[in-house]
Design brief:
- The chain has about 290 residues and is α/β, with parallel strands linked by helices.
- The chain is about 40% helix and about 15% strand.
- The longest helix has 20 residues.
- Bound molecules: zinc ion (2 copies).
- One zinc ion binds next to helix 6.
Length: about 290
């Protein structure tokens, strides 16, 4: 399983890849525009080209793009829902230009406090985004949330409900499992077997849709609904919980990305290397 980090692109897309390689990343996640703004200039063709060529020369084994935090496909407000769907379409196209394997997005809030309606509304927003993006769109990965406030999509049931309701975009959408969010939402991943049981639930609920892992430890206790990431092994999940990622055959080969607070380059170099140690310890003897 390639291990990498979410890295900033403020110094340019090519530099972001160089930085990722310098801290030991084998895969990479970036924003394709500012995550807190609706509007952005179109993706510069040359920047995208440079990014793709550096990904190739550094041998990155996976590229993910994370969407803007403003996207809310469950919004009660029709205008905001439309805007979110259009923004998602733009993300799918930008990510395709970057040669990404997938776009990771949070789905949004609960529509009129009704889970069934929410899944329908989000699925419709996803279909609409793919229709608008046309043929040049990457895969879309729905990320599980910490179930804080009114957010939707905490786990297999809610994300599975969305996947089941997709129309024209069926087959183009999977899941990105964030360990911190699952733990915060109530799946206590410090308990032996808990990660495996969560993957079992995904398998039972909606096939095996997980296509990427966000490996983040959790600052607060399980079930507190607080999305604060901690360094690997320093939070309430702990090393043993992360080892299970590398032991489950169903997750084999998936990109593992850390999204950590702290100072660069140490936070990335350190967390990537901690995960590599866990992975190597799980490797079957030759
Ligand atoms: Zn995440
Ligand atoms: Zn988070």
């Amino acid at each position: 399983m390639p291990i990498g980090a979410h890295v900033g692109v403020s110094a340019g897309y090519g530099r972001a890849v160089e930085y990722a390689a310098s801290v030991g990343c084998e895969c990479i996640q970036v924003f394709s525009k500012s995550p807190r703004q609706w509007n952005a200039r179109p993706m510069d063709v040359q920047c995208a080209e440079e990014f793709r060529s550096r990904v190739q020369t550094t041998g990155m084994a996976g590229v993910l793009v994370h969407t803007s935090y403003l996207i809310n496909l469950g919004s009660d407000d029709d205008g905001l829902w439309e805007r979110s769907s259009a923004a998602l379409a733009d993300e799918l196209v930008r990510a395709d230009m970057l040669g990404a394997d997938g776009v990771v997005t949070h789905v949004g809030t609960r529509y009129r406090s009704d889970p069934a309606f929410t899944a329908t509304r989000i699925a419709a927003g996803v279909d609409r985004a793919f229709a608008e993006a046309g043929s040049s769109a990457t895969r879309l990965l729905l990320e599980n949330t910490a179930a804080a406030g009114t957010t939707f999509g905490d786990g297999p049931e809610e994300l599975g409900a969305i996947l089941a309701l997709l129309g024209t975009s069926e087959g183009r959408v999977g899941v990105c499992l964030d360990t911190c969010h699952a733990h915060a939402a109530g799946w206590d991943l410090s308990v032996p077997g808990a990660l495996t049981a969560l993957v079992d639930d995904f398998e039972r609920c909606c096939g095996m849709p997980i296509e990427a892992i966000h490996a983040n430890d959790c600052l607060h206790a399980a079930g507190m609904h607080k999305d604060r990431h901690a360094w690997i092994g320093e939070g309430t999940i702990g090393y043993a919980g992360f080892s299970e990622i590398f032991e489950d055959y169903r997750l084999r080969g998936l990109p593992v990305i850390t999204e950590m607070p702290g100072e660069v380059p140490l936070k990335d170099a350190e967390n990537v290397s901690r995960l590599k140690r866990l992975r190597d310890a799980c490797a079957e003897p030759a």
